[in-house]
Amino acid sequence: FAKETGRNKYQFYSAKFVEAANRRLLLEQGLRKALEEKRLKVFYQPKFDLHLNQITGLEALLRWNDPVLGNVSPDEFIPVAEETGLIIPIGKWVLEEASRQVLEWQKMGYSDLHVCVNISSIQFLQNDFTKMIEQIIRENSLQPQSLNLEITERIALYNIEDTIQKLQHLQQFGVTISLDDFGTGYSSLSYIKSLPINFLKIDRSFIKDIFFNHQDAAIIRSIISLAQSLDFKVVAEGVETDDQLRVLGEMGCNEIQGYYIAKPMASEDFSKFLEHNLVKHYSYQ
Ligand code: C2E
Ligand code: MG
Ligand code: MG
Ligand code: MG
Predict the structure, then answer these.
(1) What pTM was estimated for this model as a whole?
(2) Atom of ligand 1 nearest to the CA of 74
């Protein structure tokens, strides 16, 4: 009996493994094709400044709708793009697309908008990364301050000297930097004082229960005061309710992003959204 169960178990696991490997292969082939056939899309989610009472920026978020696989989440396909190296051409395309798009909105009159683009570690670690960014900015005649690069703690700490050098170079050029998903990676706060960044984005897992959970609220309060003393702005991710917005506003959080303001949208929808929602007054004082 034992032997029998063992064999069944083995077959069960190997079937799972084959299934996962198949899915992985489908994703890789599909992604390659989507890139070639220009079927990837960039959606945009606004970032709202609680002191200026208006939308100051937007985050570019990749979307992939595959004819066979349907909608695939970036959380699933970005790792595949990274493992296969496809993230290099895909990431460059997102940067170009986002630059072109923000320029279009600026020309429509939203002249102060900036766009935030997520940068993968594979991209950031390329030797010519900063050159590539400068080139995209020059070729699109974009003001450097219209582009914000979102990097995670993991990337930043991989080789901290190299990171600092690259970030300083980019900031001197005029590009701004956000530290994304803050709080989920490394717990040590001491290193961030040495990082040249402009925005700190608190991960949405801390925001979720902020209204009920005193510990999460205390963590956020201390992140905000740390950011104030280091002179960078705090962005809260994943704000879904007015209670969360109010608590964050009272704490002095600078910007919020989340479904409460708007979900990520296609560029056409974002243009319409801007017409009616650029300025808004939320009461939290
Ligand atoms: P991220 O950079 O932390 O992006 C925020 C994610 O939270 C997005 O998920 C967004 O749709 C979602 N979100 C925003 N507001 C809310 C909210 O109120 N509630 C909830 N539940 N979720 C909210 P998305 O678009 O699925 O992207 C997931 C991750 O994939 C991103 O996390 C980012 O790490 C990565 N990603 C997306 N686009 C790109 C890209 O162009 N390049 C790279 N390298 N990574 C990307
Ligand atoms: Mg991000
Ligand atoms: Mg994030
Ligand atoms: Mg994330």
Answers:
(1) 0.94
(2) 30
Q: Which of 61, 64, 82, 259 to mutate to test the pocket of ligand 1 (most atoms within 8 A of CB)?
A: 61
Ramachandran category for residue 58: left, alpha or beta (phi over 0 → left; psi -120 to 50 → alpha): beta
**Tens digits of per-residue pLDDT, 190-249?**
788 889 999 999 999 999 999 889 998 998 999 999 999 999 999 999 999 999 999 999
Which residues does ligand 1 sit against, CB inside 6 Å? 45, 61-62, 73-75, 78, 91, 94, 118, 120, 150, 180-181, 204, 237-240, 257-259, 264
147 phi, psi to nearest 5 deg: -115, 130
Nearest CA, atom 2, ligand 1: 118
Low-confidence ranges of the chain (pLDDT < 50): 1-2
Nearest CA among 246, 285, 281 for reference residue 54? 281
